Amino acid sequence: MGLGVLEDKHLSHVPGTALLTDVVGSDNYHSHGELNTSALRHGKGRDSDVLLVPQPSNSPNDPLNWSLLKKDLMLFFICIDTAVVGAWGPMITPGFVEMTSQFGISYNKLNGDLGYGILMIGLSCFVTNSMAVVWGRRPIFLLGNLLLFISSIGGFYAHSFNSLLGFRLIGCIGMSPFEVLVTTTIADIYFVHQRGVRLAAWGLCLSIGVGGGTIISGYIIQNLGWNWTYGICAIMFGIWIIVLFLFCPETAYRRDDSLNTDLGTGQKHLNQITRNDNVKKVEGGSPGTGDVIEVEIEAIERATIDNGWSEKKHSYWHDLKIFHGRVSDDPFWKVLARPFMMLIFPQVLFSFFAYGLTTSWLVVVGSVLAQLFTAPPYNFSVSGVGLVSIASLIGALIGAFVSGPIADWIIKMMSRRNGGIYEPEFRLVLIVITFVLGGMSFFGFGWSLQEQDPWIAPVIFYGLQYFSVGFMTIAVYGYLTDCHRDKAPEAFAAINLRNIYSFGMNYFISDWISSQGPKEVFCIIGGVHVFICLCAIPMYIYGKRCRSWTSRVKIFEKVMRA
Fold this sequence. Notes:
Strand order of the largest sheet: 2-3-4
Shape: globular
Strand content: under 5%
Helix content: 55-70%
Number of strands: 5
Number of helices: 24
């Protein structure tokens, strides 16, 4: 048992499990037990004992071989874009009360009908994700920005509710790539031990957009009108289409299977090398973990020799091409169907409930802020409702700066204590923080509103929601990435079915609060949140066996090959 994670009895190398740390001798000799791991690529500096997972090829065009500066600069531009996308969705919520008067409809109808955008995001995720898997990430990012640019121009000139809703739905299709492809891009260009901080950066920018955007939009709506929120976004998206075109190359890359040390390819190469080189199997016929690791090292050495520097480095002008051909041989319709089928995977199903429902609460809470704070005893103005989001912004900022480094530190520390072996379940340890603080934040938010406490009380609890949920986001996205890195886009699309749930909640949350009060509503939400967090315990214990099960049972194999 590796730190509470039950060992599997069927596979010698379970997909997701990887050798992450080894021992560095005084002569810079790398070893893991009796195995010489010097042939494998390692981290630098403090991470010199950390093996790079996955192992990069020798090609200069492999995104894993890009300089860290190039990777981080690219991610910076995508994260800024993500912040604007995050702001685009809820930015008009501070003006909902004002818009109900302008359009002559109820608050619940306005909130519910605009919620169709959430449904559109959830459904279009499957299409944009499948396009990115087959034709690459770059053209889909650019397409998403173009649709958001067009819809923002339309929103600026919209003067009826139907025209506004139509352009919102177009924009929500453009938002969908940022629901799944940013985390996929992080998996494309970073190693396992580097992803936590970058996932936190993405989550931070998304939260800054959602929280900070409503702060700014409150003043824009109050002084210029809600149409101008779309006008300003149109300018931002217009600029960022050019930025992404110039500085964000394609990240999808095909490398030798043996280099994917986290995908369980060791057994396949063990059989291949046994046939080719007459290597004797261990007595009993079934290879042990050490044999598989040793064979993987040999396979990687062969791959790096065979796939040397024969491939010339692409020029900057070549990287500017929007379309680089197919990056997957799978038929589009099969890729489109795969996320639905992946929901039968225990890891994906757990992630759907853990991440999907938890983050949906934030969408729901954000949609009713105007209803809660413009009414007595608070009587906030439009700009005042926007300022409530300062709490979520502060919570997200602190959470990102804390959760990212903690996430990467935890997996390296636990891997060292586990004999150098990394298990994706180590990511789930972060959910402990979400369990304690998240439950407290939802219970406290509803209770303080019901008791009509001073405004600072519910605002603090609102900020605590964003702080705690950030840990859940990193834990779940990191876990899914490490379990199914080769199918990460499809897995992320599957868990983003949660947008359908958010759409449903949006439709009745306002009436629910009006009829039963915020205390009962948010105590129920808090109770569901606590139950979901507790489900992480059996997932941590049995997760490795679930990964083994899904990699060897025929129905799951068919899904992964579909």
